[in-house]
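Whiteboard transcription, Tuesday session. T.W. wrote the structure tokens on the left side:
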């Protein structure tokens, strides 16, 4: 393996790393429910894309509920965490 013959300066290092910056995602609004979504994706809230319903969200949520019941979970983990926080605040 070769050994570098010259040291990389601070400026060279910064110029090389300039491509590592994070880029903010440009969001658009859903035409049906008016919530912000990633462009060119089906809306995760209402299931619409391009002005028409692509995913039947009521079936999707029913399926999730059946899966939770099968696992023995009555509520999602986020809701359980929120309930614990509320109980701690009341004390």
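and on the right, the sequence the group agreed on:
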């Amino acid at each position: 393996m070769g050994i570098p013959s010259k040291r990389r300066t601070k400026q060279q290092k910064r110029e090389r790393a300039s491509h590592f910056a994070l880029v903010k995602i440009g969001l658009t609004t859903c035409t049906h429910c008016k919530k912000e979504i990633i462009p060119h994706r089906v809306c995760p809230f209402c299931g619409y894309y391009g002005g028409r319903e692509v995913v039947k969200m009521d079936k999707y949520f029913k399926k999730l509920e059946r899966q939770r019941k099968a696992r023995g979970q009555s509520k999602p983990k986020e809701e359980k965490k929120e309930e614990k926080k509320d109980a701690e605040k009341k004390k």
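Someone added at the bottom: Strands lie at 28-29, 36-37, 48-49, 52-53.
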